[in-house]
Amino acid sequence: MATATPKLALRPFLPTDTPMLAEIFRDSILELTGDDYSEAQQEAWVSRADDLEAFAGRLGKQLTLIATLDGSPAAFASLAGNTTIDMLYVHPAASGQGAARLLVDALEKLAGARGAEKLTVDASDTARGFFEKRGYTAQQRNSVLVGDEWLANTTLSKPLAAQTEVSQPS
Predict the structure, then answer these.
(1) Is residue 121 within 8 Å of 131, Cβ to Cβ?
(2) Exposure pattern of 60-99 as b/e (b: 16+ CB <10 Å)?
(3) For position 3, what pLDDT does the model report?
(4) Of 32, 86, 106, 152, whose CA is between 20 and 30 Å from 126?
(5) Could you read off the pLDDT of 116-145 as tens digits, one per residue?
(6) pLDDT digits 0-9 by tens, 51-67
(7) Which value, to the nearest 10 degrees, does the dihedral of the CA atoms of residues 138, 141, 142, 143 take?
(8) Distance of alpha carbon 107 from its chain centroid, rounded?
(9) DSSP 115-147
(10) Residues in CB range of 107: below 8 A, 6 or more apart
(11) Which domain of life is it from (predicted)?
(12) What is the β-pairing status of strands 118-124 and 84-90?
């Protein structure tokens, strides 16, 4: 008997999504970054979603997309301005199913269509390999103070293909 493959789709962020996205944010950090960050670092990092109003404000000020699996939110990503991927988080249960790839593909296309020549991201040590496989190159290492903890990440960038306009015959 054949099994159905869960279907990935994209949709825009709605303010009512905030509690679910905060949960994805927390679960992603706590379950997927343990090889790269200490428990204290993870706890400081997840605390950034404790204030749901502030978290919603951050998501709402950016272009935030949600990847759904069979209609349920499984991952999200946000584009700050037209040039920076600010957040990319995948629920551990959806890890490896293409949600991150789908989100980043969409953000790259949207940024390019809005005139961006390159995209940058401050990627966690956990996410760095994902971005490097997609053509992003390391620019610098960073240390970020979150609460009382220092977290390391890497700024990576990727040139975007020039968007060519299709001219209509006259």
Answers:
(1) yes
(2) eebbbbbbbbeeebbbbbbbeebbbbbbbbbbeebeebbb
(3) 55
(4) 106
(5) 999 999 999 999 999 999 999 999 999 999
(6) 999 999 999 999 999 99
(7) 140
(8) 9
(9) T-SEEEEEEETTTHHHHHHTT-EEEEEEEEEET
(10) 63, 65, 77, 79, 85, 119
(11) Bacteria
(12) parallel
Single-letter amino acid code for the residue at 91: H
Domain boundaries, the chain: 8-117
The CATH homologous superfamily to which domain 8-117 belongs is Gcn5-related N-acetyltransferase (GNAT) (3.40.630.30)
Cα–Cα dist 165/37, whole Å? 44
7 confidence band (pLDDT: 50, 70, 90)? confident
Q: What angle do CA 69, 35, 38 make, to 5 degrees?
A: 110
Residue owning tokens 């990935």: 8
Q: What percent of the chain has pLDDT over 90?
A: 88
* Average pLDDT of every residue of the chain: 92
* Tokens, residue 80: 């700050």
Q: In the structure encoding, which two tokens stand for residue 147, read together?
A: 């609460």
